[in-house]
Amino acid sequence: MPEVRDAAPVKVESLQSFLLANEEALATHLQNDEAWMQENLWNYQPRPQDLAFAATGNEKDVVMRFKRAIRINPEARLGLYAQLPPSYRLDNMVPITLKEVSVFNDLAHMNPDEFMRLQPGQTIAPLHVAVSANDEPDHGLDIGLFTDSGTAYGKEYGFGEQAFGNPNLEYGTQAPFHMAFYHESPVLYALGGFLKRTYPEMRIYQYQSLARFAFAQGHDYWGWRFMGLGLHYIGDFSNPYHVTPVPGNSTLSTLWVGLLNLLGLPDAQKEATQLVSNRHTVLEEFQSQLMTLQLQEGNHEHETLKSLAVEYPVNQYRHTDPVNLFSKVSADKADHVHHVLADTIPHAYVMDVNVEYTDLDATDELLDTVKLESGDAGFNQLTNTVSDLLADFSRHGSAYVQHILQAK
Ligand SMILES: [Zn+2]
């Protein structure tokens, strides 16, 4: 988007400095947001009153007070860094350790060469700020937030027990903040009320609202950063595995699995969780491997990258869009995407309940494996499918970005 690409460089500012400079206004802003979310969100768990952000002037705990008020992981780093695209380098890059970016122990999926430290006061292109923040929610912002997550803050935050997720994954507890099921049949909700206990809509609202707040206060670095944070969840919604419980399954078979679980045969549920988690991961890894390769080779005409080009005029963003439009478009493609995966990916990766895909160390060879398994035709079919999902992200994300920039 030219309005992002060509925006004037911004001055980097620490979170502490941003919060202290705007404490009074922010307290009111977050109070208003809380009231709005209670009124308008699909499924909202009110923020406990103890966690409300109060302007105390205490610089020592202002960052912690903010994290607790918006109910993210208190360990979240939120430091000053940029995460650059593959093979992209800036002059005088100062490295930053991955531990300063992410809360996780397993950081094998991150390339340390792509991360650079920023200093308060230096200037940087807004595009880098927004793009870096777009990946940031996956660096641990939504970890451990439930009463059964084994954390002290999870017991205070008011989100209740975790509704679903793959316990084999270190990032398993973030699932209900990055996935949501809005378009299931009433009978499925009736039996599986837990399916409604999801929070991406809340995150999208919070971050777009904080972004608009930061721009309105003249703190543009944080405007772009909060914009990027919210954009992450819109990107997640472009993957059907984030918006439907079991793509490829009919309501009846999903119910059957739930029923077996109720009857004390939890293996069925465990098996369904395993399959769906593997398929979800394989789809994202294929996309990531493919696009990384194109960026490394400078192949900017590749269809995955071209499908992200923004069409103008951009649609008007509405707060109901994440639920009614973004996730709906994606959910409608779920069965198709499942069938393409089943046709093009090795059976063990997506159809075997005894396999945890992430244990296979298969990602580095995934592109070659798909070609071997299903030939050029299968590889191209999967590439087209991914590109189509990326075009949805582009359409939806650009509406969200323009909505925020109206506050600038
Ligand atoms: Zn995510």
UniProtKB/TrEMBL annotation:
Entry-linked InterPro entries: PLipase_C/P1_nuclease_dom_sf
Organism: Bermanella marisrubri
Protein name as it appears in the record: Phospholipase
MF terms in GO: hydrolase activity, acting on ester bonds
Top-level lineage group: Bacteria
Source taxonomy: Bacteria, Pseudomonadati, Pseudomonadota, Gammaproteobacteria, Oceanospirillales
